[in-house]
Amino acid sequence: MQASRHSPAKPASAAGTLVLGDRVVNRVGFGAMRLCGPGVWGPPADPQNAVAVVRRAVQLGVTFIDTADSYGPDVSEELIAQALHPYPADVVVATKGGLTRGGPGEWARDCRPERLKSCLEGSLRRLRLDCIELYQLHAVDPNVPWEDQVGVLAEMRAAGKIRQVGLSNVDVEHLEAARRIVPVVSVQNRYNVGDRASEPVLTYCAQHGLAFIPWFPLDAGDVRKHEGIDAIARAHGASAYDVALAWLLHHAPVTLPIPGTQSLQHLEENVAVAALRLTDEEYAALDRSAA
After folding, report:
1. pLDDT tens per residue across span 281-291
2. 3-27, pLDDT tens digit by residue?
3. pTM of structure
4. Residues taking part in catalysis
5. What structural domains and CATH numbers belong to the chain?
6. Measured between alpha carbons, how far is 40 from 170 in angstroms, rounded to an integer?
C-alpha cells in the first residue's frame, strides 16, 4: 500500500492507493447498492440522478465501484453501464453473484454452480463486458459444497470471463479453503467502527496482502452511537460518518471502504474524507472503544 499524490480535482486519491490483485485503485470506493429503490428493490425514483452520481464519483477520483446482480435485482449493474460504458481504463467495476431476491429487503442464497454461471452471464450482459475485473461470491450457501461454489469461480476464471476472484461474507476457514482452489484477491465482509466481528478476517487479509472491503461502513448511520465519535467529529469540524470512514482507512492498510449514496452532496462528503486525518490519540480511542 502506498500514498498517492492527489489534486483537488481528484479528492478520492488523497487516501492513497491499494493493490487489488494486479490492479491498483484509490482507497475510497463507491458502493452501488443504494442506487436502487427502497429495500434495494426496483429502480430509483430518479434514474438520471443515479447515473449522475456514478459519473461524479469517477470524476472525483473513485476508481473502484462495487455492485451485485441482486441489487435491484439487475438495476444497479444496468445503471453503472449506462453511466460509464465504455469504462475508463483506471476504473475497476466489481460485481457479485449468489443471492436471490423475493422482494424488497428479502435475500436468500443459491450458489449452485449452474446458477452461478447464469449469474455471471447476466452480469456480463448488463455491464456490457466480456470479462469482469473482480467477481465476488456474495455469500456462502450452506446447501452447496464449498468446493463446488469456489470451483465454478475457478472454472469461469480459466474461461476468461473473470479476471480476478473475491469472496464476501466469509470466515477465515472458508477463505483459506477457497485459496487452495483459486487465487483470491479480496474479501468483502460487514465491518465498521462499531461492528468488528470480522476482525480475524481483516487481520488475515492484512497478513496475506488481500484487499478487505468493509460493507456497511457507516452501519446505516448507527456509527453515531459509538462512544466518543461525536466529540472527535466536533474537534475536526466533521460529521461522525466522516470520522467512521477516516478510522476505517487508518485501521488497516488493506481496507477499501465503499460508502454508497443516491445524493450528490453525500457523495462529495464521503469522498472528501480521503483527506481527513485524526490524531494518534483519537485513532487509539476509537480502537479501544469497540462496541
Report:
1. 999 999 887 64
2. 334 456 799 999 999 999 999 999 9
3. 0.94
4. 71
5. 11-288 (3.20.20.100)
6. 22
